[in-house]
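*** Query protein ***
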Amino acid sequence: MPKLPSWLANTMEKVISNKIYQVEVADTKMLNSNLKRVTFRGNFFEAQFIPGTEVLLRVNANEYRHYTLSGFDQMEGTCEIIFFLNKQGPGNSLAANIQKGDTLKLILDRARIKYKEGASQHFFFGDETSLGLYESLGKKVVDDEVEYFGILELQEENFCSVKQLNLLIDVVPSDIHAPAKNAINWMENMHPLCWEMWQNATFYLTGRAKSIQQFKNYLKQRGVSFRQIVTMPYWELGKVGGG
């Protein structure tokens, strides 16, 4: 989201006051040195939460950042975000300093990536910035008693986070100079029967823009139709908005 003059941000919040929730930080947990799960508590009885729901947090006087809820419980009045502490930008500063007992405003936004109802298989591709979304979608898949799988390109120190989140997803090392290369190699090394079983899945591609582009091109070369692919870039080198 672009920078706004502080007066305009204040005015906007008054206009959309029905979407703003005052929340308290109920708990924080470091999944490792740069992934942080934060649980917020508020009055969410009227909130329209669905898997993939995004929220906006005001990270300073002029800027907001989008985050996907990794989980929510309207009856308990809680929701969760997994923050990737990338050591860059105002979003990182906010997330790194959030502590239990803090209060802040959470702006409810829409789900830009929506779960495809009726699909029997769901395949996830992404990186650290995708973890919250895929934890949320993964819970929905399990509730629907269908299947999901996928591949994430992560920094090697973050491999253990996937196990902590109980995600049924494989991981490969990310390579900043070769986006999606290791994930594509992993796909190429799958047993042919595995590919035959998953080629009709819904494919969700999120995270780095160049990685999404390369992985999407690969899927199309393998015969996956455009209708099966859902994409949402979260960041790219040199572009403002990811931190």
The chain has seven helices and eleven strands. The longest helix spans residues 131-144.
